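User: I'll paste a sequence; please echo it back and then give the predicted structure.

Assistant: Echoing your sequence first, then the prediction.
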Amino acid sequence: MSHREISRNATRAVRVGDRTIGAGNPILVQSMCATHTTDLEATCRQIDALSAAGAGIVRLAVDSRKDAEAAIRITDQVQANICIDLQENWRLAETLAPHVDKIRYNPGHLHHHEKKVPWKEKVQRIADWAMDSDIALRVGVNCGSVDPLQKEKWPADDAISPLVASALEHSEFLDSIGFERYVVSLKDSDPNTVIEANRRFAEQRPEVPVHLGVTEAGLPPDGIIKTRVAFEQLISKGIGDTLRVSLTLPNDEKHQEITEGQKIIDDVFAGRVRSVVHYASKGPNIISCPSCSRVENGDFVKLAQQVKHLSKEYQEHSLTIAVMGCRVNGPGETDDADLGLWCAPSFVNLKRGEESLGAYPYDEILEKLKQEIESLIQSRPTTP
């Protein structure tokens, strides 16, 4: 397969700093800093490392005014296109917009902060600030924080329709207010869901640039395989203008997200497609979020590695264990796992589905997890 044989969607151009997403431009690879945004020296150093590896955009997490102030100082010290990962506090966009190149907001998170303010009013304000500052937006729809209003409209076993409906709703609203400088992402930890959700969205809105990602892909090499499955199927069909490979990695290895992303792009355009069409994992499925600045204890990465090692004892059992690094996305994004762990500064919260099983010190959580795995397996009906 040559480059000419892939007919990419004719998406509109969205400028982000000195790069352009969509409109036939090369697929742009990006990453996100894992350092704390308030640690200026470490964050600037990581931005430089990611840029050196080829990152076209680097994202920073902003959860507070202190984070926002730090992010502004960082933009003055680096040569990179900075995107802000906005959480519940949507009003911080006003402060940040004049200093950055792009802001990513999550439609689901808009419902958590100032609940009495309608979501359309919040988006209108964010778009106005973006337009005044001449920057782009990303509508980031995520499986672990789906718009609750959309989730209510679909059966509990339908994970795809709420993602697509939310992305379409926000795209239509932004268009209606005259703001077209945006990118959309639809992410899930299951590559098959990512493929189908993005396919449906692109089918209805082929002109909107799409950012590809498999969220909480986990540790290498499994996380790379999951991501490759989704990206190969979508890019080969012309879907995808920018992407991130979200891996659970130590801070000094985050540049692997860039190199692995570029490898996938190069392979697809060269015809070196390695994946199968359908991802059907046997045995334990370990979901873990990419380390980012919201992680409150660096031992999260080590814990994810330990859980992965522990899971090897249960290769004959299909079970999903989610290991999340923070309180922002952790509680919601462990709900669909058989067992979930989300990490606080000095303890780890353990869940069985949506049920909380308590909080345990880092040096005790693995033994407790093993007990719950055994209990879960014993509670399942045996196959005759």
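The CA atoms of residues 93 and 126 lie 6 Å apart. The chain has a mean pLDDT of 90.
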